[in-house]
Amino acid sequence: MRADPQPGRLGGSAPAPSGASDGELLQAIAAGSEPAFEELRRRYAGAVAAVCRTIAGSEREDCEQEVFARIWGKAALFDQGRGSAAAWLLTLTRRAAVNAQTGRRPPLPLGGGQEPAVGPPGVDAFWLEAALVRLSERERRVIELAYYDDLSEGAIARRLQVPLGSVKSWKRRGLNRLASLLGEELP
To answer: In the chain, what percentage of residues exceed pLDDT 70?
Structure first.
């Protein structure tokens, strides 16, 4: 692993300050700071373990290892302008857990029916809310009106007093972005 040659910063062998923000730790990890990585791991070990246990079940240990390997390798992809470090880390954790879990998913009942839920009911809502806050205000508002208030695109255009084409564009872009945020690396 790389080390930051400048002592006193978050890189190299200098200890990571416990007062550093999660975003600062991710920036230091992207530069190769092992102390920053260890501090972030200490902060999020419990949350990562809980998500992996809930979603991946018996594959939880592999899931936890995969999550922290991804954090080390993908820290440079974190963008504070797009959302919080916690949301980024937990989204990455959920994706790793779903990937670990897919090989052990139980078969569907003989009579057909819906696929079993991946986790407890509150988990999916949490991830959806975390992804929605990362959308632009217009995209989020249009999606909320369409799916939470059950409004048509025409009704949304009238309520927001914007052209119908704008509503359609914002909705399409917002849904594509949500799919990207929630579905990276899903089978």
So the answer is: 74
End-to-end Cα separation, the chain, in angstroms: 30
Cα dist from 14 to 40, 43, 71, 83, 163, whole Å: 15, 18, 20, 28, 56
Name the nearest CA neighbour of 31 among 76, 69, 67: 76
- The predicted model scores a pTM of 0.49
Q: Among 116, 66, 110, 125, which residue's Cα sits nearest to residue 92? A: 66
Q: What is the dihedral of CA 140, 144, 145, 150, to 10 degrees?
A: 150
Closest by alpha carbon to 70, among 47, 48, 39, 43?
48
pLDDT of residue 54: 83
